[in-house]
Design a protein that fits this description.
7-stranded mixed beta sheet, globular, 35% helix, two-stranded antiparallel sheet
């Protein structure tokens, strides 16, 4: 046994050596490093990360969810696409979700506020600068539509279209990303059902709009295939209590279930 052990030690390669002329084994750490890519944290990505961390650890977030039958809203989208007053404009479900949020804010204006820590004041706003979270090659940005609540549906459609195209082209001006009051993040375009969105800094609420899918749903006493989505509303609990947040989310859902309320509640 001692002789066998001695022979094994004699033939074992030294650290970093070779066996029968073979190349030295690559250290595990070296293998890992050549399969990694390191990119400096800067620009939009750095600014977004700092803002999200600050928001998450400054404002106490509460997120509520509701699943809703949006079959009538999806039919209205198709009808609006054929409406002469919307000719040449982009009409999609996000447009009606935005309008529903604006109507819900009009019915529950105290949700549209900001927390001023320096002056120890709550600032209630009589205007809505509607942010739309936009994924761009440079990272996530949130430009907003100034005074969105005062716009007609065609005007809102035009503003949304310009906002998205400008963001994709990387031409969003800094002023377009300031002074937002509430935001929509359309996670549904990625096939995601919903999420727990983080507030854009300085804003009171953010609405996540999930994917619209065919699902079995009880409609008029019978189970039928319907267009269904899930909405999630995160809000700053310093500004918005559970009752107010629930009312806002319930109003949005009610409008999307029966979009004629865009007229009767406006």
């Amino acid at each position: 046994h001692r002789a066998a052990s001695a022979r094994a030690e004699a033939t074992a390669p030294a650290a970093g050596g070779t066996v029968n002329g073979a190349a030295p084994a690559v250290e595990p750490q070296s293998l890992t490093s050549i399969r990694e890519r390191r990119v400096p944290i800067k620009g939009v990505r750095k600014a977004t990360a700092a803002a999200m961390v600050n928001s998450a650890f400054t404002a106490p977030h509460v997120t509520e969810f509701v699943t809703v039958d949006v079959t009538r809203t999806m039919k209205l989208v198709q009808q609006l696409k054929e409406d002469p007053s919307m000719a040449g404009l982009r009409v999609n479900p996000l447009l009606l979700v935005a309008k529903a949020l604006l109507v819900a804010i009009r019915r529950n204006p105290d949700v549209n506020a900001a927390w001023d820590e320096a002056n120890q004041e709550i600032v209630y706003k009589d205007y809505v600068n509607l942010g739309i979270a936009a994924a761009t090659p440079r990272g996530l940005i949130v430009p907003n539509i100034k005074d969105a609540g005062a716009k007609t549906l065609p005007e809102l459609s035009q503003a949304l279209s310009e906002l998205v195209s400008t963001a994709r082209d990387g031409k969003t001006a800094p002023a377009d990303m300031r002074d937002g009051t509430v935001t929509i993040t359309n996670v549904g375009v990625f096939g995601v059902d919903t999420g727990t969105p983080i507030l854009n800094p300085g804003e009171s609420a953010i609405l996540a709009f999930g994917a619209v899918k065919d699902q079995p749903w009880v409609h008029k006493g019978k189970v039928k295939p319907r267009k269904v989505t899930t909405l999630a509303l995160s809000f700053d609990h310093r500004l918005v209590d559970g009752e107010l947040g629930s009312k806002v989310l319930a109003d949005i859902a009610a409008i999307l279930e029966h979009p004629k309320r865009l007229i009767t509640w406006a």
